[in-house]
Amino acid sequence: MSRRNHHPVATEATIESLEGLNHYQVLGLTEAARSEEIKQSLHVERWPWHLVEEGAREFATRKRVEAYGVLNDPATRAAFDKQQGYSKGHLAARIGDETSVWGQTWLILFAIIAFIMVIGGPYHPARAIGSAFAPDFKEVFVRSEPQCALSVPCEASYRREFQSSSDLWQKVLNGWLPWVVPPVVAAGVGLALRPVVGRVAGYAVASVRYAGRRDGLTRVLMLVLTAILPITFLVLYWLLPPDAVQQPPGG
To answer: In sequence order, which residues have a C-beta less than 8 Å from that of residue 82 and are 6 or more positions away?
Structure first.
């Protein structure tokens, strides 16, 4: 006698609960699933088969095969998404949430940029800001006379200084702000734009899916673009300012 005959009520309840699941849920996925995840879904056991009655197990297998047949084909998947009422905006939000690979990549890269700015010190940002905004900006070495005992010979030293016809700008450029502001701005850009980057990438993927095509290539292209933007920002940050004054007079 089959297990279904032993537990008809439990089996029918299990089948009824399975019938209430959509194709994504049957495969243990969400509507944000990658095309590759759907391809592999039949090879991943997502059901506690030892707790499921034989009759329900057979029904679940049929449901999984049916769901796979619908979702693994981009055209029928797009039709199913529309039938379920998933708009592009809904899919974009689900695919590109803040934990998406695009948002995380964006945040990590800007965190690295902020760290590089800290390591690089204040001279480069002071040079960049001063050359762009400070009137009559110039970078010089200033001689510092040593305080030495008369009997002990000592040499003068030089320190780098940024000068401007504006006393306020001169104080800013030679103060603590060039140490703090650039890395804080970089970290802020990473945090503030992370959800935007994820949503934009999610919308691009959702648009491709709505057109009945696989989303794998689009996901990769959006990841490359997400990485290129911060890297371009960093390159411009280092290239745009004028060259540094290399050594003190007569050095």
So the answer is: 210
Q: Of 80, 244, 35, whose CA–CA distance to 160 is shortest? A: 244
Work out whether strand 157-163 and strand 138-144 pair parallel, antiparallel, or are unpaired.
Answer: antiparallel
Distance CA(139)–CA(23), nearest Å, equals 66
**So what's the architecture of 3-86 in CATH?**
Orthogonal Bundle (1.10)
* CB contact at 8 A, 194 and 56: no
Helix (H) or strand (E) holding 80: helix 74-83
> pLDDT of 45-65, one tens digit each?
655 554 456 666 777 788 888
pTM, 2 dp? 0.78
CA neighbours closer than 13 Å in the CB half-sphere of residue 159: 7
| Cα distance between residue 163 and residue 173, in whole Å | 8
* H or E stretch at 142: strand 138-144
Nearest Cα to Cα of residue 74 among 115, 99, 118, 39: 39
Handedness of CA 110, 113, 118, 122 (dihedral sign): negative
Q: Where are the domains of the chain?
A: 3-86, 101-136+166-239
CB 88 within 8 Å of CB 207: yes
Query: Which of 72, 46, 74 lies closest to 60 in space, CA to CA?
Result: 46
Q: DSSP label at 153? A: -
